[in-house]
Amino acid sequence: FILTLISILHLKVYKTEEYKLMIPKAELLIKDKDDVHILALALATNSPLWSNDQHFENIKEIKLIKTKDFV
C-alpha cells in the first residue's frame, strides 16, 4: 500500500546516507531533536519544508511552507 501511495504522489524516499552530512548542521539549527532528520534532508536537497511546527520558523537556511500558504 505504501509503495502504491508513494508512486501516486510522486514522492521520493531518501536513505539517511543521502543527507547524513547535513545532520550536524541541523542539530545546531533546531532545538527539537525529533526534527533533526527532516531538517537535514531539507538542507541537503535544498527543498522547501512543509510544516506548521514553530521550531522551523526562524531557520533562515530553509524555505518554510505552512498549510495556510495553500489555502
Q: Based on DSSP secondary structure assignment, what is the total number of beta strands?
A: 2
Report the radius of gyration as a whole number of Å.
Answer: 13 Å
**Uncertain spans, ≥5 residues at pLDDT below 50?**
none
Summarize model confidence as the mean pLDDT.
Answer: 91
Biggest β-sheet description: 2 strands, parallel
**Helix/strand/pairing category:** mainly alpha
Shape: globular
Succession of helices and strands = HHHEE
Number of helices: 3
Range of helix content: 25-40%
Distance between the termini: 29 Å
Strand order of the largest sheet: 1-2
Give the percentage of residues in beta strands. 5-15%
Give a verbal description of the structure:
This protein has 71 residues and is mostly helical. Helices cover 35% and strands 6% of the residues. The chain has a two-stranded parallel sheet. α2 crosses α3. The protein is globular.
What's a quick, concise take on this entry?
The chain has 71 residues and is mainly alpha-helical. It is built from three helices and two strands, in the order αααββ.
Ordered list of secondary-structure elements with their pairings:
Elements: H1 2-9, H2 23-29, H3 36-45, E1 49-50, E2 64-65
Helix pairs in contact: 2-3
Structure keywords:
71 residues, mainly alpha, two-stranded parallel ribbon, 3 helices, globular
